[in-house]
From TrEMBL:
Pfam families: TPR_21
Record protein name field: Ancillary SecYEG translocon subunit
Originating species: Candidatus Erwinia dacicola
Higher taxonomy: Bacteria, Pseudomonadati, Pseudomonadota, Gammaproteobacteria, Enterobacterales
Family as reported in the entry's similarity comment: Belongs to the YfgM family.
InterPro entries tied to this protein: SecYEG/CpoB_TPR, TPR-like_helical_dom_sf, YfgM
Nucleotidyltransferase listed as a keyword: no
Length: 206
C-alpha cells in the first residue's frame, strides 16, 4: 500500500477510493495513517532504544514479503520477543501484510498482541482502529463498537465516527449511523474527511 507524505494527501486519496469502491473503504481507511505513525515512532525511538533492537526491527520489517512465509515468521518472532514499542510496530507491520493477504484472523491477532506491548495512547489508537476495521470486515459490529471505546483522544473523533457509523448501519441502526457520522462532521477534522462523512449521511437520506 502506498504511504502518503502527509495526512491531507492520505485523506484525499481515501475520499477518491470511497467514491470508486464504496464499502470497501472500511478496511482501507486509516492504513496509511497507521504506517505514517509507525514510521514516526520508529524514528523517535532511534536514540532512546537499543541500537541492536532497532537494527533487528528494521531488518525484519524491510524483509517482509507475504509471498515468503519465512519473513512473516521472522517478524512474528521478533514481535513476540520484544515487549516494547519495536515489538508493537513489528506487529503493526505484520498485520498489514496479513490484511493484504486477506488473512484477517491473523492480522487481528497481531494487533491484539501489539496492544499489550505499548502504553502510548496514539499508537494504541492506531492499533485499535485497524482492529475495529478488521472486525467490521468480519461482520462483528458489536466487537467493533467495543474496540472503538478504547480509542482515546479528540484527534481521532472523525475516524472513530466513520467506523462506528458503519458498524451501526450493519446492525440496521440507521439513526445511530447518521448520528455517528454527524458527530464526525461536527468535529475538528480535515474538510475532505468531513465531506466523505457528509456523503454517507446524504446516501442515508437518499
Amino acid at each position: 500500500m502506498k504511504v502518503y507524505s502527509n495526512e491531507n494527501e492520505q485523506v484525499d486519496a481515501l475520499k477518491n477510493f470511497f467514491a470508486q469502491n464504496g464499502k470497501a473503504l472500511v478496511v482501507g481507511v486509516g492504513l496509511g495513517v497507521g504506517a505514517l505513525v509507525g514510521w514516526r515512532y520508529w524514528n523517535s525511538n532511534q536514540d532512546s532504544g537499543s541500537r541492536e533492537t532497532s537494527a533487528a526491527y528494521q531488518q525484519v520489517t524491510s524483509a517482509l514479503d507475504a509471498s515468503k512465509p519465512a519473513t512473516l515468521d521472522a517478524a512474528a518472532k521478533f514481535a513476540s520477543d520484544n515487549s516494547n514499542t519495536y515489538g508493537t510496530l513489528a506487529s503493526l507491520n505484520l498485520a498489514k501484510r496479513y490484511i493484504d493477504a486477506n488473512q484477517l484472523d491473523k492480522a487481528a491477532a497481531q494487533l491484539q498482541s501489539g496492544l499489550k506491548d505499548t502504553k502510548d495512547a496514539n499508537l494504541q489508537a492506531v492499533l485499535n482502529l485497524r482492529l475495529a476495521r478488521i472486525q467490521l470486515q468480519q461482520n462483528q459490529p458489536d466487537e467493533v463498537l467495543k474496540t472503538l471505546k478504547n480509542v482515546k483522544g479528540d484527534g481521532w473523533t472523525a475516524i472513530v465516527a466513520d467506523v462506528r457509523g458503519e458498524a451501526l448501519l450493519s446492525k440496521g441502526d440507521v439513526k445511530g449511523a447518521r448520528d455517528a457520522w454527524t458527530k464526525g462532521i461536527d468535529s475538528d477534522a480535515f474538510s475532505t474527511l468531513k465531506e466523505m462523512l457528509q456523503m454517507k449521511v446524504n446516501n442515508l437520506l437518499g
